[in-house]
Amino acid sequence: MTFLSILFALLIEQLKPLRADNPIYASIKGFASHIENWFNAGHAHHGRLGWAVMVGALTVPTALIYWLLMHISPVAAFLWNVLIVYLTLGFRHYSHYFTSIQLALNTGDDVTARALLGEWTKQDTSDLDVSEISRIASEKALITTHRHVFGVFFWFLVPIGPAGAVLYRVAEYLSRAWNEPDHMKFEAFGRFAAQAFYWIDWIPARMTAAAFAVVGNFEDAIYAWRNFADRWTDESAGIILAAGGGAMGVRFGTPNEVAADVLPIDAATVDSLLEEPEGVPGDIPSPRTLQSTVGLVWRALLLWMFLLLLLSVAVWMG
């Protein structure tokens, strides 16, 4: 049932992609905003309580409905699984940005590519050259795919089933919503949400990196993972991007990932940190990198589905 649930959800999403601004997501975002307003009194334990209420309010009903449907009809439970996976997956939520950026770069329209990338990443991209546009778009695509597809796959496979997929997606959203906006940065309230998602994503991030290594250049992916993942302040992102870049033979990241969080710092240390580390494998990103990213993601997806099929067959025969 697990394999078929994911397969049908992927097929439905290919035919009818769920937009990132759909009413269900909007209501969840509104709920998270209300939880923040109700519980945020400036202390870390308020963040823990708010996180537990938010996650529990969405995962517990999901699990109860699944348990009830299993006792009523396996077909109904299967349809519930397909619905939950469809709602939690996001394989094509942001693909229009990536595809449009790729098309713009291929036609030499750098201005449009910068504008689309800025809209997607919510950052100033006015001074980026083609290489930087290609790098950031590819990095964003790999991280987005992991958090909207592969991470969901892993948590859907745990015994709690669809509730695990909901847990992962809600935890991922709260780690961003309660930490990244300017009015929430450095607040104690969102600290637990970030820590909780770190541990929830600990295994999935490494499984995604391993999948990239298997379907790409294995030696370079493992080498980059072991030696250069710590260039990113976000450990999980560093592992995924280092392995992904090594698998494609592309040099992801910039020397600024480490330097950005080192304060105070003298000029000599800044210069040493901004130097490109020796031995970083791969070529400078280019528009062709975007096509390589698409290929890597699809191969990793096929690998996941093949392994899931084998697991389902083994369970069925056992």
TrEMBL record:
Keywords: Cell membrane, Cobalamin biosynthesis, Membrane, Transmembrane, Transmembrane helix. InterPro entries: Cobalamin_biosynth_CobD/CbiB (IPR004485). It is found in: Cell membrane. It is a multi-pass membrane protein. The keyword Transmembrane applies. It holds the Pfam family CobD_Cbib. The keyword Membrane applies. Pathway: Cofactor biosynthesis; adenosylcobalamin biosynthesis. The chain crosses the membrane at residues 49-69, 76-94, 148-168, 296-317. Converts cobyric acid to cobinamide by the addition of aminopropanol on the F carboxylic group. Belongs to the CobD/CbiB family. NCBIfam families: PRK07630.1. PANTHER family: COBALAMIN BIOSYNTHESIS PROTEIN CBIB. This is Cobalamin biosynthesis protein CobD. It comes from Herbaspirillum lusitanum.
